[in-house]
Amino acid sequence: MLVSRLQKFLTAPEDHRFSPRMIFWLTLSLVFSISFAIPPLQKAFSGEYLIMDDARQHLFWMQRFVDPDLFPNDLIADFYQSITPSGVSGFYHLMANLGINPLLLNKILPLFLGLLTTLFCFGICIELLPVPTVGFIGSLLLNQNLWLHGELTTAVSSGFAYPAFLSFLYFLLRRSPLGVGICMAIMGNIYSPLMLVASGVLILRLIQWEKGKLQFSNNRQDYIISAVGLGVATLVIIPYFFSTSEYGPTISAQEAKTMPEFLDKGRTAFFYSNRGLNFWFKNSRSGLKISLNPPLVILGFFLPILFRFPRQFPLVEKISSKINILLYLILTSIGLFAIAHLLLFKLFLPSRYTSHSFRIILAISTAIFLIVVLDGIFQATLKQIIALASTVVFSFVLIFYPFFIWGKAFPRTAYTIGTDPAVYQFLQQQPKDTLTASLSLEADNLPIFSQRPVLVSWEHALPYQKGYYRQIKPRVLDLIFAQYSPNLDTVKQFIQKYGVDYFLIDQKAFSPEYMTENVWFKQWPDQGKQALSQLQGKQQPILLQSWNRCTIYQNQLYRLVKADCLIK
């Protein structure tokens, strides 16, 4: 009796969408999503100067929504504003107009992105196998993966992509042309790679395997849905073909292979010297980047095998034929991954077409696999103890694995912490066009925390767009030359050319070790050798000669040096 009740509660299909059992498992799914969001939320509000890494890179310019006079004529801010998807910037702008600061919004958004992701993932699972626990397990596995890797915590383009893409899949399964069209428009304006994946799915679903051969669908509704979705995608894409960017064109693969920026120690390392299989499978930019976290999702690969044993696993008979959408998603993702390699950098990075979709595929397929197998165990055994033990083991591994194995790494709360509020507060009191030049990694933090521009920073030195990078690279080279030059005229010309107001200099900047430790010199070793040669010359660099006299603030890590003091 106990086993039969447990079986009904855990593995029996549910005909009513709003039954108490369905509501219970959906509510539990949302509760887990909230519980995963709380630690990052607590961390985000534990200090004033905390920000997720991707948000630090893509969000700083949005402070213009609060104060339009910030970052005047700033190359870096203008560039990042131009590449931010209109849907993301529009949403942040709308919220800013309603009085919610972009930095505050960025901290609270992950909670709501997680809830939407959970809701639509649950709905997709129910469409494929109407067992509430499938929805719970699928959304739980997906949440565990996303919160481990901080995919939602960034609350920028990639964070918005998950609820948008899942909502597309849900409305596609529900056969809603309006829902599909709206979701395609949203994806196209927040994360275009997934809109292309969705477009591929809309095309492939028109080709079906029936009676031992491939043939086109004979369902008129299929064509209406695909036409609406592809039509919207076309309308979104067309403007890109006719628009021009002052920061283009995109770098070619041939050019990138010759640039240190794309090699092992470069800012956007892509062509590693020891590529091997990692290049195609593991590397974050070039590889498939299929995340197998938690490891339980490996079971999702074995779901097709269960269809060969319907007698042992009778619940497979209840799986909807719409499960083919996972196959379409696999084929489209891998196909676009290959095309992205062939047209390298024209469609951005190949991994963007597989990493997100495979997280969804494996979470859903694993959830279905586990419930079908559990139901098979219930069907096969007459001993209550075996069925109960299986349920306990499944539940324990599913729920508690992240906390025992990943420990404090889950959920991810790896916020970038500003190292010295005094510098940020000082710069905030300066005119809004105050420009700081620095080779330090701390320069990455200045735009977001001080709301003042920097000449260059490692985080913002993306080399994909030639029009942008041909302006950034000379700035870095000029800064290196000026920082280590013993010639006063060289330093003076640099300051006047770029309008530099302050130098932020690492305390170790004039040590030989710095020439091999600094990220810029790792990328350009020859520049490090040249700087070391200047440092070891007969005359000290001007900045070293004058930095005690011109330093207005210092701590154990760096000094803030007033530029005009150096040339007086």
TrEMBL record:
The keyword Glycosyltransferase does not apply. The chain crosses the membrane at residues 21-38, 108-131, 152-173, 179-203, 223-242, 290-309, 325-345, 357-378, 385-406. It comes from the Bacteria. The keyword Transmembrane applies. This is Glycosyltransferase RgtA/B/C/D-like domain-containing protein. Keywords: Membrane, Transmembrane, Transmembrane helix.
